[in-house]
Amino acid sequence: MTTTSASYTDVFACSAGHSAPARFRFARRDRVEGKCLRHALAHRPLVRTAAVTSLVVGTILTAINQGNLLIDGMFPEVLLWKVPLTYAVPYCVATWSALRISRLG
Ligand SMILES: [Zn+2]
What we know:
Strand content: 5-15%
Distance between the termini: 25 Å
Number of helices: 4
Shape: elongated
Bound molecules: zinc ion
Order of helices and strands: HEEHHH
Structural class: mainly alpha
Radius of gyration: 20 Å
Helix content: 55-70%
Strand order of the largest sheet: 1-2
């Protein structure tokens, strides 16, 4: 009796239609899609959820950390990198977390 030891990633190619193996699995309504990292990072529901998370959490963190300056009408030059970074961090965390739980194998 012969057994095969194909892993889940060997079975599925990226659903975007190229030959890269699927590394992440996304369920949408009645189907499951496997995607490579590049296409997983562009998966619209993932991007949308991460963007909403970034908007909510980034706004709260900006209000906590820089609210006093902004209310006083001050916008020091240092905020030009601090505020975008405050929004980028929750986006990255939400994306990483989604990819982590969607990972195959
Ligand atoms: Zn792909």
